[in-house]
From TrEMBL:
Catalyzes the condensation of isopentenyl diphosphate (IPP) with allylic pyrophosphates generating different type of terpenoids. Its cofactor is Mg(2+). Its EC number is 2.5.1.-. NCBIfam families: uppS (TIGR00055). It comes from Rhizocola hellebori. This is Isoprenyl transferase. The keyword Magnesium applies. GO terms for molecular function: ditrans,polycis-polyprenyl diphosphate synthase [(2E,6E)-farnesyl diphosphate specific] activity; magnesium ion binding; Z-farnesyl diphosphate synthase activity. Substrate binds at residues 36-40, 50, 53, 81-83, 88, 209, 215-217. Keywords: Magnesium, Metal-binding, Transferase. Mg(2+) binds at residues 35, 228. Belongs to the UPP synthase family. Z-FPP synthase subfamily. Signal peptide: none annotated.
């Protein structure tokens, strides 16, 4: 009795949210911290919380569909930090990497996928098979005339990214014969940004983090300097379309100041 009523109320509320968003400004680029996979699995009663990683990886496909429907052409997702790779239980890391290989990389490689894949992070810290699967998917999607761009942050640390960008800039300048004083005189935020993992892409307008955590965890520290932040209490596999639309509504209702 209650389930049909709940579904009807959900559809009504989703329709209302969709109508509210119709004339609102949408973000060009949304970044998401996909947090809470294991906690969701425990909440759902699974004996092995690692199964949450599979549900989380599969859910990404659905969320990308919502982004495409909303006309959001740039999405960045945080799959695993450099600290995750170093500090978590090796069996859990192996399980997560398998999900990335068999779900994320394979689905993005399909000809029906709308998304061109970009990678951000220290790929050398990944297992060989995961690194190969992601690079293959990146190569296969590169030839597409894609309007939608997905950046996967994996083996990622925002501080390491900035250090790497500065190092690459200095090395390039040194190869051209510039002195350190020359570099110091010309150094600018735009010059550093060009060497970030995300160089050439727009900064995120909106960052969404699921699971109720209210912190960035080193995610896009440079790029998200002026982003609007939205923290959602649901775990990633349970992140519903109405949760996504609420985040978009919250974004559209804010007056962006860009540091002013």
């Amino acid at each position: 009795m209650w389930q049909p009523l709940r579904r009807a109320l959900y559809r009504f509320y989703a329709g209302r949210l969709h109508a509210q968003l119709r004339d609102m400004a949408m973000p060009r680029h949304v970044a998401m911290v996909m947090d809470g996979n294991r906690r969701w699995a425990r909440q759902m009663g699974f004996d092995d919380p690692r199964i949450g990683h599979r549900y989380g990886a599969e859910h990404l496909d659905e969320v990308l569909g919502w982004c495409a429907e909303a006309g959001i052409r740039h999405v960045t997702v945080f799959l695993a930090s450099a600290d995750n790779m170093r500090k978590r239980d090796p069996d859990e890391v192996d399980h997560l990497m398998q999900m990335i290989e068999t779900v994320v990389a394979q689905r993005l490689s399909r000809q029906t996928s709308l998304w061109q894949l970009h990678l951000a992070g220290r790929l050398e810290v990944l297992p060989d098979s995961t690194r190969h699967a992601l690079k293959l998917a990146q190569e296969e999607t590169r030839s597409r005339n894609a309007e939608f761009h997905l950046t996967v942050a994996i083996g990622y640390d925002g501080r390491e990214e900035i250090v790497s960008a500065v190092r690459c800039l200095l090395e390039e300048e040194a190869r051209s014969g510039a002195t350190l004083d020359d570099v110091a005189q010309r150094l600018s935020a735009d010059a550093i940004a060009a060497y970030l993992y995300t160089g050439g892409q727009p900064d995120p307008d909106l960052v969404i983090r699921t699971s109720g955590e209210r912190r960035m965890s080193g995610f896009l520290l440079w790029q998200a300097a002026y982003s609007e932040l939205h923290f959602c209490d649901v775990y990633w596999p349970g992140f519903r379309k109405i949760d996504f639309m609420r985040a978009l509504r919250s974004y559209a209702s804010r007056q962006r100041r860009f540091g002013a």
